Every structure is written in structure tokens, then in C-alpha cells.
């Protein structure tokens, strides 16, 4: 597969590992469509780029209407899309529903990637070879994948909701890779960025959670730097290996076996169909 830089859509591209990755990809010749919620952060990122091109797209991915309009914006703004990176994420404190009636953590961390991939898949096909990359988490291993209660409508727990959203994301990536034609020129892989306490991931979490994250970050050997996570993201976008391999989960140790719930074909199919219903698309895609 060709490894020439092209256009990469990077959600969560204005802070944390996404911001570092955006700069690095631009320096390597990629045109980066950086998606984020903070206007000033996005504008400063675009202005800071001394090599390559970074264009900012302001979007709150919690609402499905904005995910769809973002897809239209990206489709109209670029000649093609060569890589799609789902890096945006949050961990809240209380259970909050979006305008679509979806619990916010699963809406941003999982359903937004599912829907945005659906909306941009034909553009990726047209630009193939292309890649889809999702930012997972080792916390997916502590989650259960209750497809009938993805949103924790009862007994809400913020960390459990975050972990389940990441398990769903890893499972979706594997299922997507399995559904895409082997000769279609699109790969789909996920990775664990490490525990990066200095990012804004837990900005909306409870005070207790934020304090625990801060304390954990002070323990030698526990936390990773944003640079470490960004380097893994860039690897999956650029390295030839991940232009040929698909459906894999990558950690600091290399390709690793994800949780069994993410690799179970029957459970992945049920998750796919439930997700399609929640965002209002035909489950027969791709």
C-alpha cells in the first residue's frame, strides 16, 4: 500500500495526545483536519503549525446532528480523506443525556466514531489505501459489554461507563475490519495510548476521580507522557505495517489480544446492530 501523506481527520485533535499527533503528522506532510470543541485551542494549533497544514473544525461530537454536519463539512472541504482517527473522548462524573437522549460518555466515545465512520466510509474508499484508527484503552478489560444497557440507565458509574465505551469502541473496530473487504484497501485498528493523567480526558469527572488521577500520575512508572500516546497514534496512521494489518489492538508491547468480549463475533454483531439503531442507520453497512 502507498504510504504517501494525504488528508487525515483527527478528532480530539486540539489537546493532549491529539494535539501532539496533529503537529507531528503535519510535519510529515499530512494535511490535518483537527476536530475539537475549543475554538481558541483549535485556532492556536492551526497558527502554531510551521510545517504542513492543520485546519481546525469546531464540533461537539455528543450530538448526532453535529457528527453528520461535520461529515458534510469534511466532504466538502477536502478532495479526499486518507485516514480517519477517532481520538476524542471524555469521562464524566454524573450521568448526562445528550439532545439525542444518549448517555454522553457512550455518545462521544463510541457512537460518534461509529456514525462518523459510516458517514465518511465512501470518501475513505475513494481515497484507498486508507486507514481508520481508534483510541482505545486498557480499561476496556474491566468492562462488561451489556448491549441492552450500553447507556447505564440504572446504577450509573462514571468509570464503568468510560470502560464500557472503550470496550465497545475496540469491539467495533474489530468488527469493522472483519466486515470490510480484504481487498478493499481500508484497514481498521485500535490502540491503547497508555495512562496519560496530564490530558483533559477527566476534565468533567468528579472531584474524587480527578484527585485520584492526579495522585496516580505522581507515582513513578504508572503514568505515560502525552508524547508516548501520540507516537502510538502516529505509528498506526503512518507505518507500513498497519497499512497491511487490520483488526488489531496495539499497546506499548506491540500487537496484543484485547478482552474476549471484543473478539466474540456474536457479541460484536449484536453491538453493531444496536449501535445502528441508536444512530438511525441501516445495520447492513459497510
Explain what the structure shows.
The protein is of the alpha/beta class and 286 residues long. The protein has a single domain, classed as Rossmann fold (3-Layer(aba) Sandwich), CATH 3.40.50. Helices cover 45% and strands 14% of the residues. The chain is built from 10 helices and 8 strands. An 8-stranded mixed sheet has the order 3-2-1-4-5-6-7-8, sandwiched between helices. Helix 4 runs parallel beside helix 5. The longest helix is centred in the middle third of the chain and has 23 residues. The two termini are 21 Å apart. About 3% of the residues have low confidence.
Q: What's the main sheet like?
A: 8 strands, mixed
Low-confidence segments, given as residue ranges, are 215-222
Considering DSSP H and I runs of 4 or more, what fraction of the residues is helical? Answer: 40-55%
Q: What would CATH call the architecture?
A: 3-Layer(aba) Sandwich
Structural class: alpha/beta
Proportion of residues in extended strands: 5-15%
Please tell me the total number of domains.
1
Q: What name is given to the CATH topology?
A: Rossmann fold
Reading the helices and strands in chain order gives EHEHEHEHEHEHHHEEHH
Number of helices: 10
Number of strands: 8
Amino acid at each position: 500500500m502507498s504510504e504517501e501523506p494525504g488528508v487525515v481527520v483527527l478528532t480530539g485533535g486540539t489537546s493532549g495526545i491529539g494535539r501532539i499527533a496533529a503537529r507531528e503528522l503535519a510535519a510529515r506532510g499530512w494535511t490535518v483536519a483537527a476536530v475539537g470543541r475549543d475554538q481558541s485551542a483549535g485556532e492556536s494549533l492551526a497558527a502554531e503549525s510551521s510545517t504542513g497544514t492543520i485546519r481546525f473544525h469546531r464540533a461537539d461530537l455528543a450530538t448526532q446532528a453535529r457528527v453528520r454536519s461535520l461529515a458534510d463539512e469534511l466532504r466538502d472541504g477536502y478532495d479526499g480523506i486518507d485516514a480517519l482517527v477517532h481520538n476524542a473522548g471524555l469521562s464524566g462524573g454524573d450521568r448526562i443525556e445528550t439532545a439525542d437522549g444518549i448517555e454522553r460518555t457512550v455518545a462521544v466515545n463510541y457512537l460518534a466514531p461509529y456514525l462518523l465512520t459510516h458517514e465518511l466510509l465512501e470518501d475513505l474508499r475513494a481515497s484507498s489505501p486508507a486507514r481508520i484508527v481508534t483510541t482505545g484503552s486498557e480499561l476496556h478489560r474491566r468492562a462488561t459489554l451489556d448491549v441492552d444497557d450500553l447507556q447505564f440507565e440504572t446504577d450509573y458509574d462514571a468509570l464503568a461507563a468510560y470502560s464500557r465505551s472503550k470496550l465497545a469502541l475496540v469491539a467495533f473496530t474489530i468488527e469493522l475490519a472483519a466486515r470490510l473487504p480484504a481487498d478493499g484497501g481500508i484497514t481498521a485498528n485500535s490502540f491503547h495510548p497508555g495512562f496519560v493523567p496530564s490530558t483533559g480526558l477527566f476534565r468533567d469527572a468528579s472531584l474524587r476521580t480527578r484527585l485520584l488521577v492526579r495522585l496516580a500520575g505522581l507515582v513513578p512508572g504508572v503514568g505515560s507522557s502525552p508524547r508516548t500516546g501520540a507516537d502510538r497514534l502516529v505509528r498506526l496512521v503512518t507505518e507500513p505495517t498497519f497499512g497491511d494489518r487490520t483488526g488489531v489492538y496495539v499497546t506499548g508491547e506491540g500487537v496484543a489480544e484485547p478482552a474476549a468480549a471484543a473478539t466474540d463475533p456474536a457479541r460484536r454483531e449484536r453491538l453493531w446492530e444496536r449501535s445502528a439503531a441508536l444512530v438511525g442507520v441501516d445495520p447492513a453497512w459497510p
